[in-house]
Amino acid sequence: MNLKILSNEVQQFINENLASDIHKILLKNSPFSEVTSKELVEQIESKSKSKHKLPTWFATKNIFYPNKINLSQTSSEVAAHYKSSLVQGKTLIDITAGLGIDSFAFSKNINKIIHIEKNEELSAIAQHNFIQLEATKIECISADGICFLKNNSQTFDWIYLDPSRRDKNNNKVYYLSDCEPDVNEHLIFLFTKSNNILIKTGPLLDLNNGLKQLRSVKEIHIVAIGNDVKEVLWLLEKNYSEEPLIKTINFKNENKQTFDFYLNQERSAISTYSIPLAYLYEPNAAILKSGSFEYVGRYYNLKKIHSNSHLYTSDKLISFPGRVFKILNILDYSKKSLKNLDISKANITARNFPDSVEKIRKKLNLKDGGHTYLFFTTNKDQKHIVINCTQIFE
Q: Which residues form the PG-1098 ferredoxin-like domain (predicted)?
């Protein structure tokens, strides 16, 4: 951690070059004798990325940024703030704390946070930034999280961990057993240190696989931002043996879409099917990740277009956690029928359809964008159709 980066002159250079071509900066000699061009570019890149992801950090003076890889692995402030709403009590230990975005958010609801990060430089960066952020409830310790717990007699109201999803060669891994630390291997021990454990996993982890590997899962929170699933949160409570609640959350601008269910509700739900009616409904990404393909339709009294399309329809307009469209007409999948629309571009979605979006665009010579929305799908009679719509809600 080069503290010379925090000098007024260097900070001014960084702020003035947030929109500059970093390749040009990298190729030039650094204007500062004690700060390299590579270090300047690293700060510029990471600070630029933090503008929307970490607005509090971006707006705070003298924040020291890690490299862009470490920054990309951190939670956004939106996701971190949501996580903080799930915990309460006096003490929380974050045993894979990294830059400390989550620790900072937890400190708003918890009296004492222990920030454990085995990378000494990252731990030092976090500690420095907490001082700038006036986060006085957080204690930073550079250590291996599991080892620290084993060598410490203290218990905590909460344990939080975000297992690393990269192997020793920096390749991405997707199974809990391949992450570091392996939660399943240490879970019995972790429950000797706290009755409550919150685990963050990546969006690609299959929920059923996670439930097979973990025990005492009380809730699963699927968090999407801008209709893009960012993380899955597993809330574990010691000796909990009932069915977990699945909670889906999609943050869209200032709005928050939510939909909750239990797995037995999904298993017992029976869909009804219909041709496309007046309105079309597409669940948001968090719901699609949750696997609630039957219960969501029954809950909102909607009919499915096909068992595998996961598109829904109704005669009456309702509020729905996803995109909502007014259906204009239904077309056959052919150049002739689409030619009659007289359009050169459209927003295309393909669901349960043999051709990809890219292939459809090439075949029909359609550019992306505009106000026309075309859904290429299969109806309940196994016929390939195109649903021409205008969007009402997103």
A: 279-321
